[in-house]
């Protein structure tokens, strides 16, 4: 047996808690169907695209005699899709235990390496021995993950061949909004092909942007934000001790600022930018720098030449002028790809690009530090677009703020000292040991998916609700995947997508932060949450995120 840390050994023994309804046994769990549903928008187009699955009712599991569930032995496939999130192994554990509880001859098949494993037919059976080595652990290493999308006719055909050909009658897709959109497309494809395969989705993303009235949070968000908050809290303690540095911390979350908002609640830094607010106010980068300078100056007047600033990974995309610049750069780099390839130096490439941009955008690009400017034109994703998530926004902020403060010193409007340290916390939060909340939540999501499968449902996402209560009081059921969709224009075509949930500026969480931030900018009210706790008082180890507590009126 390989060596294990003490925590590894102890976490393997943790017994996740199920909602009471799921503990009652499948023959006593009766699905209750709500009214037919629609979509977030574009109902007519989506109904046409998902003729077999659109409009299905929300499902709630309640107590009642149920003799019509599938009692025959079945094979269920599971695939992990997209980036890692703490709790993925417990989703699989919930699936495994739920299947064996219904029928000991049921089998769980893991597709290896993400959706490409479905296309290529790479799979393995999950056994007791395998499963028991991964319970309550972080990571996706039991079957790994991948970012392949199943979207071409050939890929769909191969998926059908490998799933049906191996006697698999249901597929569970564990992923974010894009992955679950793919799950919806697979469910519709199998229905059109009269293939006997059900598809169930599970909500996963540390970014927290897969949520709605029926999906209160995605798994992994709780664990990731606690891991980030521990380190940010340590930095807050450090600045309060050393009192000579400004720390700029960039946190994961490209499309939404949920992580930054939650970590701000847990640590109470001096500044936390919320990208959605920047976009709504149409703030320029100069205005962002001015707002930072105001805080730095005010604190310096109180002999506080230190502080902590949180920056969401996608901040730069929320600034309208940068959004326009990035779009223009993508167009220029695609149009003049051949010309740029002939240029030997980065300097020559920059000079060429300046001539192809509008004068205002060229000036904006020239105003950036060389390193950031180079990242904008050199780091590209597989589609040839700027890799915004790789741009070191925190360093850009520091550089431009430093310039601003130097100008103010010359003008005599600032006399403090400014020394900055930058950080990026990203991958550190994805694969940690899941918190008790995520351990319980993920196990329930997997177990609940089994109940959806054996009761014959397809095209649904596993839904566990009432999450601010004790796990025994959580509600279980399913929400139609199409209910969360709208149409977006991508690569010149209308595409169905599950809508990302951004930070709502009129929502309780953001309003709570807005009410305290002016005070925190000047005062030092830092919180130090410490490391994730797994054992101890319930209010310490089982509490949900501050975001969820605000949303459900618990704060």
Q: Can you describe this structure?
A:
This protein has 555 residues and is α/β, with parallel strands linked by helices. The protein has helices at residues 6-12, 20-23, 43-49, 88-102, 115-120, 128-132, 153-165, 177-192, 221-242, 258-267, 275-280, 285-301, 315-318, 320-335, 337-341, 346-356, 359-366, 370-378, 393-411, 436-454, 508-522, 538-541, 546-551; strands at residues 29-36, 57-63, 75-81, 107-111, 123-126, 145-146, 170-175, 198-203, 246-251, 271-272, 307-312, 420-425, 460-465, 475-480, 485-490, 493-498. Strands 1, 2, 3, 4, 5, 6, 7, 8, 13 and 14 form a 10-stranded mixed sheet that branches. Strands 10-11-9-12 form a 4-stranded parallel sheet, with helices on both faces. The protein has a two-stranded antiparallel ribbon with strand order 15-16. It is built from 23 helices and 16 strands. The model has no long low-confidence stretch (mean pLDDT 94). The chain folds into 2 domains: 6-52 and 72-145 and 154-220 and 434-490, Rossmann fold (3-Layer(aba) Sandwich); 246-430 and 507-551, Rossmann fold.
The figure for the number of domains is 2
Could you say which overall geometry the principal axes of the C-alpha atoms support? globular
Helical residues, percent: 40-55%
The percent range for strand residues is 15-25%
Notable traits:
alpha/beta; Rossmann fold; 10-stranded mixed β-sheet; 4-stranded parallel β-sheet; 44% helix
Reconstruct the topology from this structure:
Layout: H1 6-12, H2 20-23, E1 29-36, H3 43-49, E2 57-63, E3 75-81, H4 88-102, E4 107-111, H5 115-120, E5 123-126, H6 128-132, E6 145-146, H7 153-165, E7 170-175, H8 177-192, E8 198-203, H9 221-242, E9 246-251, H10 258-267, E10 271-272, H11 275-280, H12 285-301, E11 307-312, H13 315-318, H14 320-335, H15 337-341, H16 346-356, H17 359-366, H18 370-378, H19 393-411, E12 420-425, H20 436-454, E13 460-465, E14 475-480, E15 485-490, E16 493-498, H21 508-522, H22 538-541, H23 546-551
Parallel strand pairs: 3-4, 3-6, 3-7, 7-8, 8-13, 9-11, 9-12, 10-11
Antiparallel strand pairs: 1-2, 2-14, 4-5, 13-14, 15-16
Helix pairs in contact: 4-20, 9-10, 12-19, 14-17, 16-17
